[in-house]
Amino acid sequence: MTIKTTTKALLGTAVSFALLGSVANAADLDNLSDNDLLERIERLEAIIGPGDKYAVRSGNNKVRISLSGQVNVLALGFADGENAGLSVADNTNSGTRFRILGEAKINESWSAATELEFQANDRGSFVISQNNRNPLGSTAGAFGTRLANLSFKHKDFGRVRIGQQHTASEGTSEVDLSGTGVASYSSVTDIGAGLEFVNSTTDALSGFTVGNVFTNLDGAGRDDAIRYDTPTIAGFTLATSYISDDSNPGFDVSLKYRNKDFAGFGISAAVAYLDQDTSTGGDNRVNGSVSVIHLASGINATFAAGDDNDDGQFLYGKLGIITELNSLGKTAFSGDVNYSTNVGNGTNNFQAASLNTTTGVITAPTAATIELSDTEALNFGFQAVQNIDAAAAQVYVGYKYFDLDADNSLGANVDFENVHVFYAGSRIKF
Questions:
Q1: Cα 259 → chain centroid
Q2: In the prediction, which pLDDT does 406 show?
Q3: What's the Rg (C-alpha) of the chain?
Q4: Computed from CA positions of residues 181, 336, 128, 170, in that sequence, does the dihedral angle turn out positive or negative?
Q5: Which of 98, 219, 246, 421: disulfide with 69, CB 3.0–4.6 Å?
Q6: Could you tell me how far CA 174 lies from the centroid of its own chain?
Q7: DSSP one-letter code for 11
Q8: 284: exposed, middle or buried (Cβ count in 10 Å: 0-12, 13-18, 19+)
Q9: pLDDT in tens, 46-58
Q10: Contact at 8 Å (CB) between 216 and 190?
Q11: First to last CA, the chain
Q12: Spans of all domains in the chain
């Protein structure tokens, strides 16, 4: 596009006439020199921003507003040894959402910001189950607020943030440089958590779900909190937050490290400690993760682990490679495994459930309960992600295998059928 064409487009609106204080038309512009036109463009962009880059404007001229988000949906198929099904869902790994940021510079040292983020996961992939293959509007997946906070930052002393936010320990089990996080990461149950294991003895749903027995012990999640982050020094950032949870108040602290190129390797790592009131169901836990990628080859490895006050533990590992197979964008492949122990200790039942073969609805069992203990849960999976750079999009496929071994309150080992999950989907960011 030529300078004159660009200027005609910019000045062809009423706002441009008002701002420049003249009544111009296309013919008038043809008589102006390039220098005159460039000067008018710079004057206009100084007020309304460069072209269409800023599509969202603030209610005042002090705060810069930006809008971003994504839509992420998938088709999810499952088989549990007795039943099989297919559902369309929002991918809870990185759910459908939109975000509004406000940023303002106070002076050379201080800045302020606001953050609002809302999710729109009507059918979250973690709530799909044999009993409910289309959980529209369920509490776990409904539209809601993810983030609502404000912050003040000093370039030398760090940032203080208050409101609903990521706590300091959030994400510390989830460091991942594989390029396949949209398809699978250490929280392996985000796709398939609601699916129940079948009791091999009764061939009925046991009432115990994938989400009951797997974990990645990832900090305190999102909550109302006051958080402080230090400036990043030599790649290290220290953070702590006071969590103002009604039932489980507490605090956490984390240390994160990031180096984009350390002797040819990219490195990202995090470790955290969480301390909540255990008498009201809170957690005391230590967890962390590290991910390393060889920049020249794209070969990468990720490891995560955690331990909590209830003797729950998990180990997670992933191996992958990022390649360039086509002109669309990078292609990433990976395989991962999660081993979780003593996560699902609790009460449920093993009585027979009934299946309506016409509607496909499975009626949950209602008989006496039996307690599970000494749970050992094993997951492994494979993923492939194709980036489409021109559309800020990713297309992915994946497979997950879930296995559970446990004892019951009668001292006997309980056998469960394995759960298999297959899925394919896409995420587009805006």
A1: 22
A2: 84
A3: 26
A4: negative
A5: 98
A6: 9
A7: H
A8: middle
A9: 665 554 554 577 7
A10: no
A11: 24
A12: 3-48, 69-99+122-136+171-429
